[in-house]
Each structure stands twice: as structure tokens, then as C-alpha cells.
Specification:
The structure is a homotetramer.
Chain A (H helix, E strand, L loop, with lengths): L13 E4 L2 E4 L2 E2 H5 L5 H10 L5 H13 L7 H12 L4 H9 L9 H12 L10 H14 L18 H11 L5 H17 L7 H12 L3 H25 L3 H12 L6
Antiparallel strand pairs in A: 1-2, 2-3
Helix pairs in contact in A: 2-3, 3-8, 3-10, 3-11, 4-5, 4-11, 5-11, 6-10, 6-11, 7-9, 8-10, 9-10
Chain lengths: 261, 261, 261, 261
């Protein structure tokens, strides 16, 4: 039988022969193992090239930021899943990842998208950043949308990760007009609203990711890959010092009874 | 209302206050960001301590090994999922992870479990490794089980990742009786079966993970965290050069018609 | 320790005591088992009441419609996942569900949302349906959005499910202004575009779901619950007559080689 | 290009042409919609035939049993996931399903497997059921395994679902040697252990599923498809009366602080 092929299938990521395993055009054993750390490997996987030392420090910093943030809803979902299917650790991590959507991680991609819409990657700003920021904030207010990357329910008046990430980016030559525009947007948003609106970690990461030129659609993936690591950590802790069954029993006892309020 | 608490809930992984974010007892911005690469961060998350330089190189190598292995069933599941829900990248990665079970990643944990059963962590081998290997192989044959970590459908007579991983482990002081026992098991299995049974990458990783003392139940998690990175790479490629819809249409056309064989 | 509770936790869905299991206020063994079919049980779970015979026929029809649609991307993702983790059937179904997003199932909720925006549930149409349809189509064209529930890549000039679903709804008293408005929107969209734009199954289901008054946010869930059934069917077939490994090997062989186009 | 095909791909489940949609060889609009309820459709999907009225009542009862069981870990995982990604309802259901493994649903398949090993489907018992039960219980005790389908942490001395399910099965001609053997196993296990070991719902369902002849590997899927319905119900309640964020905040407050015990 002959299958008529309209479009051929191709990948640049990796392929294997009996005696070779190639990833992104490099021999995995001799050119990658022992040479690249996990963050650099992620950079290679996404871009097809080895990061410079400056890129390596900065990219590792932004993904490291997203690994662990305590017993989040995502971590709880993974722990509760593991309690029911300990033989399928991978499914527990998968369950934890499923919730990394618009509420908790989405603003990473939103901030980058907003910045790229103002300044397409590869171009220079066409007018003063303060003017752009004014338009961006006014536009979000007109559409009753929150500005992505600003504000945090807990970390006020500043998100402690943001100045550090911006410092690392600046020290490594990855702080040009995208970081500056994000900061201009913050100033304008605070001026107009009269409220403290810190650039949160997802805003900082979105801006730095834009400095690299990563497509906005993939930036949520930084949080996904980083949190997969953190979720494995939560599962290891759950094995040694479990909380899932206790949480379930407390909730069931309270929620299954007569309404309390 | 007072909830009677039988067991209190606790985590050592991370917690936040308005001006501080602590991970594993360390201040995230000042002590972690800019200092640890992503693999070291994973090590900290799992063990509570910063790896030594030797541990860092070796641990990074074993997780880097597992990031990318071409268009695997896992990568295809992620791509097909993304085609239906591009707004939920996290769910596409989750779908890809769900298949990292006993067939494709499980032998990592199996090899470590087998080695720990022979030599409990922290103890010295109680008798010659060749004798242990003989018993292990005989026991698996008696129970009609394959020996975990041996054999590969494609990579014959050796899996090219294995000698490189063992070299890195040896150069960094992480190659003692677990690696040696894995090798003894291979020799015995080849002797008894008369077949080429290379130590595959999951066998090598299982043995090196045992050198670190990682609990066998968490070792599958190395593959899960690493592959999460690889799946983000596949999704980025799927955005730029898609194959999912084409695969679907080919399969539907063929499978929906009359049987061909 | 006393946990201060800001909001109590409560569920109306189900709770258990040693000798009773209650679902939606009914005794599961004596009032539900043997009395309700699976579709009626879904209706009870979602609404808190037993459907009338007319509602039962219609609701069962709309969920039955969504169970099986051949080797979709969702079915392929489930099969490929099962090939890697056959011990975790639940994770294979989960992987298949992850892709039921905006591309393949989302328009069910989109159609209902559009209809509710025109005619809030419980109210009568405030003006002729043809006028409403004109505005809806013009608005979507102005915003360059497709009208949800219209058009199908394969089923032209009509989607064969739609007239049958509308017939069942009409015979059972569940075809009032929402179904009529969906049909008016179709007529207007075809008139303005000059193209054949059949109401597809998700459009029909969205309109009938609106007749019931189901919140638009949950309507995607009809497809999710129905497809979970279909995916279990695909996994059973995959056990008996597998295709996942064959698909993987074909794709890997083609995609891992030099580019073909 | 010609792809050499070692094995052709085929499905019996469903396929479509522009004007027809066929499921299991039946025209979906005219032969299925309006005729089959959702449980009957599941039966058709799994077996390729329409159930008899007796099979319909019994099969619907066993899947209806598994739809809803209060705020289980699975329901909590779905709710916590929805809180983070409300735009991806399907991923929240998927997260909830991921935990339906060996701890909470697996014994359904375990009970059926145990029964089929004693009496292969299609054969008659080769010796008295009491003798078989004696061997089964002794064998599990020797291997220090619990007997699948027996015992329940809450429902003592009987699981109220079991007598009702057995009654329905008996009334419909689906209670022969598999149900009887399950009961003999219970008697023997209680005799030997001196403890109350009720046949739980998964034991009853496993036994009745064996009466149908369903392969044991697919029986977990009954719980998966049923719980998908229940999880959609939990998400609808979470939209109207949320508990996920409250649970998260309580846990985070307690678990992130100093250890309490």
C-alpha cells in the first residue's frame, strides 16, 4: 500500500542510529553529556544552540525561579494524585502541571506578548518607552483587563525575585528595551491607579524572555518545565512525610457535613 | 469551628512571606538565583543541599541524558494534544508525561531497586559482586522477568550513552559497588543467555542514582523532569513545523477504511 | 491547634457514613442503582434532580453523540500513552482528554455562550431572532472571529448529527428560541458569506444545552465525560489490535531522517 | 515517497464520510441517537453490540455506582487544577483521573483478574468454589497480599452498594460462578482472619464484570469513565461554590510554618 503524503514529517530535535544519539545536531554522549548543565540543555533544546556564558547564567536563573513555590494548588494536586496511584509517579506530575494555566503561570506569556506587540523582536522602539507605556496601560484599562506581569497578592511592595532577576539580566547584557518597557509600564500603571503594582516574577521573566527573543507562545513552557522538577520534589517529600490523605480526610469530614456558613 | 487535627501538615520545600521567598531553607533571590544552574536546583530540591562540583557534573549528566530522544510516543502524545488545545501548553506536556511508565522509563527505577535489594544503601557488599550477579540473574530467569536496565531494541551492541555516563561518574568519584554490580549483572546475563545485553541508559542512570543514594521510588522522576523539558521543545517545534494534524489525517484515512491485512 | 476558617468547605454532591452512601441527597443503592442509566446519573450529578423522560432522551442523545468519532488526535494520544504505561490506564485516558480544548471541542461552549449573550436564560427574546442573528454575524465578522458552531471540514453540506439532534430536541419539548436562534445565525452567516456553513454537532449541542439552561462554562464537560468513555474503548481496541507502536515507528523513521520537502 | 508498512492500521470503532458517521458499524444519527442511553453506548463502544435489557440494567448500575463518592483525592485534584486553569476544564478532569490507580480503583481489575485466574472465561468451575476460595486466600496470605475486592475503611460490616449490585445482577441473570466465587472468597477470608471483610463495591463490580466477560485489563476503565462524569460535576460545583483556594490557603499557612508535631 502506498500512502499519499501531502506533507512530510520532520524533526530537528533528535534522532538515533544503532551507535549514535544526536540531539540538535550534536552527538549526545561526547558533545553534550558532561558539558552542559540542565538549563543549558533546555536552552539548546529550544534554540538549537549552546548558550553563551552570559545567556547561560540568565536563562538558568529564570527557570530556577519557577521550580519551587511551596504547597501551591499544583503541588497539592500532584500529592493527592500520588496518594491514589503511587505506581504512576509520572501521572502525579502530569496532574500537577495541568493547572499551570492563566491564573498562576499565564502572565509570563502575557507580559512577553504585550512587550512584543509594542516592539516586535529585532526592531528598535519607534518612540519613547514612556509613551508606549501610557498607551499600553490606557488600552488595558479601556478593555478592563489587568496588565500582565504586575501585582502580587502577597509580595508587596516588591516581589523579591524581580530586582534580582533584573540585576542578573543587566549584568549579563540581557536588559535592553523590553526590561525598560516593562518598568515603564509599571510606573505608568502605579501612577494611574495610585496603587502599588510591583512587577511580579512572571512579569520579570516575561520581559527577560523577550530580551532573548523567545516566542511568547512557548514562555509558559519555562514554568512548566521548572515546575515539573519542583513537583518531583513534592512527591519525594510526600513519600517521606505525607499530607495528602490528611488533607482529604479533613476536607471530606468538613465538606460532607451540614453547611457551616 | 475547630478542626481536630490528627496530623499536622508540614513542608520543608518552600515558603513565602511578603518580602522573602525561601526554598529548602535558602533565600531564593540572594542565595539561589544566579548561583545554581537548573540541574543543581533540582538536586537541592530533592536532597536539601547544594551538590559538590563532582555531584553537580554527574547529576546534571544523568538528567540531561533523558531530555530528548526524538519523536517518541510521549512526544507524539504531546504534539497531538497541543493540536487540540494550543491555549493549554501545560496540558500538552502533561499528556506527554503520562506515558512515562513501565515500558519506556520504568527500568530506571527497576535497576536501582534491584541494586539496593542486593546492597542496602550505606552498607558494603556482603560477598563478591559476581556471586550477587549470579543470584540476581538466576532469580529473574526463574521468575521469567527481564533484568531491568539491560538490552535495547536499537542500540546494539552498546548503548552509546552508557560508557560516557559511567566515565563521568568514575571521574567524579561516583562509581563504586553499584556501578560495578550493574556491570557484573550484565556480564552474567550475557553469559547465561548467550545474547548481547548492553546496559542501557536507564540501567546506567539507575546505577549512578544508587551511588547518590536516591530512593528508588523517585528515580523515575528524573526522567519525568527531564522529559518535561524535551516536550516543551517538541511543542515549540510543533508550532513552527507541525506534524500532528498530518499524522492524524494519515492514520484516520488508513485506519478508518477496510482492513489492509 | 485551631485553624481559623474564613470560609467553610461544603459539597452537595455526595457523602458517606458507614452504612449509607448519598449522592445528591439520594440513597445511592436504593434510589439510584437499578433506576438511573448513566446519562440520567450525569444529569442528576450536574443538576441535582432526576431528568423527566423527555429530558432523559434528549440529554442522553447529546452526550452519546460525543462518545466516539474515530481515531482523533485525542484517541491517538491515549493510545500512544497506553503503549508506554499500560499499568496506568487512567493516565492514558487523562492524556487523551487533555487535548479537548478550543480546536476540537471548545465550540460547544462557544455556541452556548453566544446564545446566552443574546438571550439570557429565563428571559424571552427581546426582538426578532433574525435581527439578533444579523448582529451576531456582523459582530463576529467585524472582530474577524468565526461564528461558533458553524462549519465542518468534512461534513458538508450538512453535519448528519445536527438534524437528528434537533429532531430529538423538538420531539421532547426542548427546542425553543435557542435552537431557533442558532438556525437563524446559520442562515445569516451563509447569506453574508455565500458559503455553506452547516450547524455542526457542537453547535447543535450548544444550542440544546442552552435550552436546558446549563451554564456555558460546563458544556465542554459534556464532551469530556463522553470522550472518556470513547477513550476507554480505544484502549481496549489498542490492547487487542494495537496501532501506537506502528505509528511511532513510521513517524520516527520518516521524521528522524533528512527533510523530505 | 512510499512508506513501507509492516502492519496496517485499523479501527472498528468509528469512521466518517461527508454524509455519514458510523460507530461500531451502526449509523450514529439514525441507529444510535435517541435509541441508546449513555451506559448502553459505553457497552456498544466496548463490546460492539447493543446490550440486552438485562445487560443494560446491570451494566448501567455498575458504572453509575462509580460516578460520585464525595470529595475524594481525585475530586480535590480536579478542583485545585481548575482553580489554576479554568480555561482548560478538560485538563482539570484529566488531573482528577490521573490518581485512579492501585490505591482507590485498582481493586476492581484485581478482583476480576483473581476470578478469571480461578475460572477462565467460558469455562465451568473445575472443582467446588469453597476449595478454590481456600486456595486463593491461602495464596494471598502466603504472598502477604491483600485479597482484592475485600474490606473497606469506612463501610463496615457491609458496603451498602454490594448487596444491591448483586441483587441487580441476580435479577438480570448475571450472577453465576464469578459472583459466587467472590462470596466464597469473602467467607474464607473472614473465617481465616477472624475479621469483618465485606466485599466492597470494587469487588462486586469486578465479579459482575467477570460475569459479562470483560477483559480484566479494561475494568479499571469503568471507574475512569464514570469518575470523569463525577469530576465534571465537581467542577460545576467548584464554579458556583469554590473550595480549592480556601483549601490551598489553609494548607499553605499551616504547612509553611514551623512543624506542629
Amino acid at each position: 500500500m502506498t500512502t499519499k503524503i501531502k506533507k512530510s514529517l520532520h524533526t530537528e530535535l533528535g534522532h538515533s542510529t544503532p551507535d549514535r544519539i544526536t540531539v540538535r545536531g550534536r552527538d549526545l554522549p561526547s558533545e553534550i553529556l558532561g558539558h552542559l548543565n540542565l538549563g543549558d540543555m533546555a536552552f539548546l533544546e529550544l534554540t538549537g544552540r549552546i548558550p553563551t556564558p552570559q545567556e547561560s547564567v540568565t536563562f538558568n536563573a529564570i527557570v530556577v525561579t519557577l521550580v519551587e513555590h511551596g504547597v501551591t494548588p499544583s503541588a497539592l494536586a500532584a500529592r493527592l494524585t500520588y496518594a491514589g496511584a503511587p505506581e504512576a509517579l509520572q501521572a502525579a506530575v502530569a496532574a500537577g502541571l495541568c493547572g499551570l494555566g492563566t491564573v498562576f503561570v499565564g502572565s509570563t506569556e502575557g507580559a512577553a506578548k504585550m512587550l512584543y506587540e509594542a516592539i516586535p523582536f529585532g526592531e528598535k522602539p519607534s518612540r519613547p518607552l514612556a509613551d508606549m507605556a501610557k498607551d499600553i496601560v490606557a488600552d488595558h484599562r479601556a478593555r478592563k483587563l489587568i496588565v500582565p506581569g504586575l501585582g502580587h497578592p502577597l509580595h508587596k511592595p516588591i516581589d523579591p525575585r524581580t530586582p534580582r532577576l533584573f540585576q542578573i539580566a543587566a549584568e549579563n547584557g540581557l536588559s535592553t528595551h523590553y526590561v525598560a518597557l516593562m518598568q515603564a509600564v509599571q510606573e505608568e500603571a502605579e501612577r494611574v491607579s495610585g496603587k502599588s503594582l510591583p512587577i511580579n516574577a512572571t512579569g520579570a521573566i516575561g520581559a527577560i524572555a523577550a530580551e532573548f527573543g523567545f516566542p511568547w507562545k512557548i514562555i509558559r513552557g519555562f514554568g512548566v518545565m521548572a515546575r515539573a522538577i519542583g513537583l518531583v520534589g513534592h512527591i519525594l517529600e510526600e513519600i517521606d512525610d505525607p499530607m495528602a490523605i490528611e488533607i482529604w480526610q479533613r476536607v471530606e469530614k468538613e465538606a460532607g457535613g451540614p453547611r457551616q456558613d
